[in-house]
Amino acid sequence: MFELIPYSKFRDTPSVRFFDITISQSNARDLVFHDGPAVSPHNSPDGYWQFYLHPHQEDNLLALTGGRTFYLVNFAWRQAFHIVRLEANGAILRIPPGTFHRSVSDPEGSLVLNQAVRTAQATIEREFRVYNSANIPRLLQVTSKSAVPPVLHGLNRSQQYAA
């Protein structure tokens, strides 16, 4: 399942703190900037949620500025749908391969560092394909407002469907 990974402070000087945020197996880094209340991937033209799913990449996400809410679906988990809130300078969110995911930034936007772990089979085309929930009945059903409520991490019920 996904994990929230803490990291450690290793030094303090006047007005400066140093943190070790190393993901040991990371072999790729992405810096993802959302300008304002961006949704990624965006909704389809007819309003359906869209998701990424990386078959050969593990994401390890750290919010550097702002906040971002992640919507995660993995049918191998005991409960398939989770919503995870990342705040700047909080934990690192590890998303395993094979997990549908999308994110929504706060109104002021956000900046997130991804220390990805990619296998040799990973390609940009394959890893960043967009999946429309309208075309995947099980995904649409589990994310619908009439489904079993998602498990929330770091937010309350009123914040769950901001996308």
Examine the coordinates and then state which fold CATH places here, giving the name of the CATH topology: Jelly Rolls
Class of secondary structure makeup: mainly beta
CATH superfamily: Jelly Rolls
Helix count from the secondary structure assignment: 2
State the CATH architecture: Sandwich
Succession of helices and strands: EEEEEEEEEEHEHE
Percent helix, as a range, is: under 10%
Strand content: over 45%
On the 0 to 100 scale, the average pLDDT is 93
Secondary structure tally: strands: 12
Roughly how many Å is the radius of gyration?
16 Å
Features:
single chain, 163 residues, mainly beta, Jelly Rolls, two-stranded antiparallel ribbon, 2 helices, 7% helix, 48% strand, globular, Redox protein, RmlC_Cupin_sf
